[in-house]
Amino acid sequence: MKKTILLSTFLLSAGLLAQKKNISMQEAVLGLATNLRVDNLNQVQWIPNQNAYTQNVKTSYGEALIKKEVSSLKTDTIFRSSQFENKRIPQLNWINAEQANFSTKQGVKKINIAGQQTNWLTLPENAEEVEIDGTHNQIAYVVDNNLYFVDKNGQTHQITTDGKYEIVNGKSVHQQEFGIHKGIFLSPKGNYIAFYRMDQTAVTDYPIIDWTVQPAVNKNIKYPFAGTKNHTVTLGVYNPSTKKTIFLETHPEVDHYLTSVTWSPDEKFIYIGILSRNQKHLELNQYDATSGKLIKTLFKEDDAKYVEPQNELYFVKGKTNEFIWWSQRDGYMHLYRFDINGKLLNQITKGNWIVNEIVGENSKKKELLITTTKDSPKEKQLYAVNWETGKLRKITTDAGIHNVSISSNGEYAIDNWSNETTPRKVDLLDTKGKLKSNLLTAKNPLSDYNTAKVENVTLKADDGTDLYGKLIYPTNFDKTKKYPVIVYLYNGPHAQLITNRFPATGNLWYDVLAEKGYVVFTMDGRGSSNRGLKFEQAIHGNVATTEMNDQMKGVEFLKSLPFVDAERMGIHGWSYGGFMTTSFMLRKPDVFKVGVAGGPVLDWTQYEIMYTERYMESPQDNPEGFKETNLINRVKDLKGKLLMIHGTQDNVVVWQHSIDFIREAVKNGIQMDYFVYPGYQHNVIGKDRVHLMQKITDYFDLYLKPENSK
Fold first, then answer.
1. What are phi and psi of 486, to 5 degrees?
2. Residue 599: which of 495, 698, 691, 676 has the closest Cα?
3. Which residues are catalytic?
4. Rounded to an integer, what distance in angstroms lies between the CA atom of residue 414 and that of residue 333?
5. What is the pLDDT of residues 14-44, one digit of tens each?
6. Is 276 exposed, middle or buried (0-12, 13-18, 19+ CB in 10 A)?
7. How far is the C-alpha of 308 from the C-alpha of 610, rounded, in Å?
8. What is the pLDDT of residues 389-430, one digit of tens each?
9. Which of 334, 439, 590, 705 is deepest in the core (most CB within 10 A)?
10. Under DSSP, is residue 29 helix (H, G, I), strand (E, B) or coil?
11. Omega before 623 within 30 of 0, i.e. cis
12. Alpha-carbon distance 472 to 514, whole Å?
């Protein structure tokens, strides 16, 4: 009888296992944002100057925004959804402990903790680049490339009048390189507005055609190609009390970039990183905010390959005479403390790892709260560091990627983290390392699905550098069989594929491929991010050389595996990954049978100045490098099956790249496949992306013939 029970239990368990579902293509592409979304806490924010945070919760009467005090654990309801226009609590931005603002279709509203709402400002429908100064009840925005400002008295100032197609005021400049993400800089006390002014007159027009309408419509954009004339950028400062604008003396006649724009806390100065056109020389300059005159150059940074400023200056609270500067001068992104005369006081962090973010500070302890890669390049952990002594201590303890929000006084943290086996946990911590209280442990949304086995792999580059990758096994793996392989890669600057986060594969499309009977391999070679300057600069001057050597280490590893069929290998990547895919198919045509290249750069003379000249120099200074990497000249070397994909309105990697490639293929009688997405720019999104990924999968299935292909 006991044996029968055991057998029945076994059969039941096996039946349950058999009932696990396969991840559909729609779920692979959209699932983590829809039905496979990992549970999270909503609108968790620290209330300014309080050891208390807010959270949006569901109740029997709708949503409620509650306040939780850390020490007493007291919970109060602040707002209910019935108090708001659409019966939902909007995303609130706390101005102080008493009031917050939020955006509506009409503009911006304010609400206090008593629930009283005010229509703060109605914005024009076409307002862009909105910058809100909630503390001083002021707003700046852009309409038709002109800058407007509404002061604390409700008076609207039109700061510029010269805005047009060629002249852009108050918007991000330099193609959003160098950490630039905005064009309006409101002063700390609310007395001035600094802004970028970009003159694009010298930049050639480039047509972007919308083929989704009849007749097709052209919209010209200004696209500065490598080696061509650049736009000119200046920085204006407007004084609402005098209604006058001055421009800082940054010598706009010189071809350079204006980066790291920062106000001093007392509003007397503006700091700008002046980066040379060839990006090898940086000067940090201090300017008088009222006259615009250059006061002094605080220091200079030079590099034989490139200097890449990525952050503004950081002034700790209450300090006007010293600041923190981010620099890779020792080979890794670290923090340095300077006084305002340019004297280096100390290097705060050091080591063969990088600082990701400054997330907060504890002024009493003279500590910065930072996230770093100190434990592993694949992780992000929270540390505290004393800005005078450099003493470092770790706060988070679990392996993984930690996204952290810090209270105003730096004493508490809300830690939202995951790793390969943990979909999400949200913990309340104190920064002393004594308190850890779990607020959420999310269920695994993939628990009812067949997911692939993942093996973390470390290979060695030809110089001995560690290269991190993931090997993903086919579902129902049988070591006696031979399986086709798909290699997915990017391997370009400012990107990292291999991290310790959920899901373990890194991409649910890989799980779909595994279910079909593919081995999937992905790896970050030299040139990708979070590994230090030497690792990133290894590609300088001749892209797709070092990266290909590194990826070939992956190919050699795959070929060494007895279950890999080296005759059925495919490769796929998008953007820089599309460039890498095409490079492999042409420069090493005997390695991969099939390639799918999405939005690829194929001729670096047709890509934008800032990015291209950082990694490749200019075409005038590095003609051999540009010739070597021009894939259009190599079309005749194609042997395998290549599918190239491009969005017809791509304004990042313009469509001309692949059009020129196809023309050359036709001229040389080379067979390839091409697929365009009308109406899309660089990335295909939503349901169209589901269709796209299915098409890519079908293409691999056609030629690589996995076990479960139709």
1. -120, 125
2. 676
3. 575, 650, 682
4. 25
5. 444 458 999 999 999 999 999 999 999 999 9
6. middle
7. 11
8. 999 999 999 999 999 999 999 999 999 999 999 999 999 999
9. 334
10. helix
11. no
12. 7
